[in-house]
Design goal:
- The chain is built from 10 helices and 13 strands.
- With about 350 residues, it is an alpha/beta fold.
- A hairpin with a 7-residue loop joins strand 10 and strand 11.
- It is globular.
């Protein structure tokens, strides 16, 4: 059983995906938004024994239970194109260092982080270089890939960068890349030296090399990124959703096709384009109807829209969870084999 702590949890996209993959157990979560926390608790039937923190800056690492995986969809507004992109100068951007603080104190075997793709290019790559350098100093090898939710069985195009950190280098390449990758695989830095095959449109390698002490740096940073071809790999099933008969109210007795694989198709009613209702938005993130029912019982439509927009896509985390579980078993098997040989 892989125990995980759910940091900046939102409504629990990480938790839903990992628990769907099986073999994962949540020991606690941290979420400052009271409405998101209320949704999280009913969505996942949170037990009283689970530890909870309102504010990441107040997490007492001495009281945290043991865990193997730290999940965090850390605040993205300061790196997003839609935001002002202030990065670390925005207090929300500095929340990454709270992740680092917890990781430094508890040393989980794995990190699973998510953010907007703009994180990679923010400040010409310097922001992301600082993140990788910080994780390297903590002893983590890192791999990352921009994944699109539309390739994981939900009919929405939602590109996010996922970062995997691990202490055991035998996990290299076993969790990322997922599925098909671009022919120009992005190898930023390998073992503290520049790789001759580097594909580096943002100049990130040079920044990383400078941070790690140049060629032959002593930090031994192992960091690999993958560019991904964003395309639909197969037919995506049409999503079914509640009929919004007046563009505001809900008719719970009818269903209607609403979102299509073809981007030219819009959700319509009586020939008019209509907005998506909260249930549809949550379905697009991979949540099940029984989960959505519980969320809508404690939150308004306004909050449900916000929470769906901020959530991590369940289907993507499910795929990563399966891969992480396989890598973990292989790693543990190697440790047991080594101990057996010593005996």
């Amino acid at each position: 059983m892989i125990r995980f702590f759910d940091m900046f949890s939102g409504i629990g996209g990480f938790r839903a995906g990992l628990e769907k993959a099986g073999g994962f157990k949540c020991v606690g979560h941290c979420e400052i938004d009271k409405h998101a926390d209320a949704a999280y608790r009913v969505l996942h039937n949170v037990k009283e024994s689970e530890i909870y923190y309102t504010d990441a800056t107040t997490i007492d690492t001495d009281t945290l239970p043991e865990f193997d995986l730290l999940c965090a969809g850390f605040p993205c507004q300061s790196f997003s194109i839609a935001g002002k992109r202030k990065g670390f100068s925005d207090p929300r951007g500095t929340m990454f260092f709270e992740i680092a603080r917890v990781a430094r104190a508890r040393r989980p075997a794995y990190l699973l982080l998510e953010n907007v793709p703009g994180l990679l290019s923010h400040d010409k790559g310097r922001t992301y270089a600082a993140i990788l350098h910080t994780l390297c100093d903590l002893g983590y090898s890192c791999e990352w890939q921009v994944l699109n939710s539309k390739n994981f069985g939900v009919p929405q195009s939602r590109r996010r960068v996922y970062i995997i950190g691990y202490l055991d280098r035998k996990c290299a390449g076993k969790i990322l890349p997922v599925r098909e990758t671009n022919a120009k695989t992005l190898i930023q830095l390998l073992g503290g030296r520049q790789d001759s095959r580097v594909y580096d449109p943002e100049g990130l390698s040079k920044t990383l090399l400078a941070k790690s002490g140049g060629l032959g740096g002593k930090t031994g940073l192992y960091a690999v990124g993958y560019n991904r071809r964003d395309k639909i790999t197969g037919k995506i099933d049409t999503a079914y959703a509640l009929n919004d008969s007046n563009f505001r109210g809900l008719n719970r007795n009818q269903t209607q096709n609403t979102v299509f694989e073809d981007a030219s198709m819009e959700p319509t009613l009586h020939g008019r384009i209509r907005r998506l209702v909260p249930r549809e938005c949550l379905r697009l993130q991979g949540f099940l109807d029984e989960q959505i029912d519980r969320l809508l019982s404690v939150n308004s439509d306004t909050q449900a829209y916000k929470q769906a927009g901020n959530a991590v896509t369940v289907n993507v985390v499910y795929e990563l969870g399966l891969r992480l579980k396989t890598a973990h078993r292989a790693s543990q098997g190697a440790v047991c084999a080594k101990k057996g040989a010593a005996l």
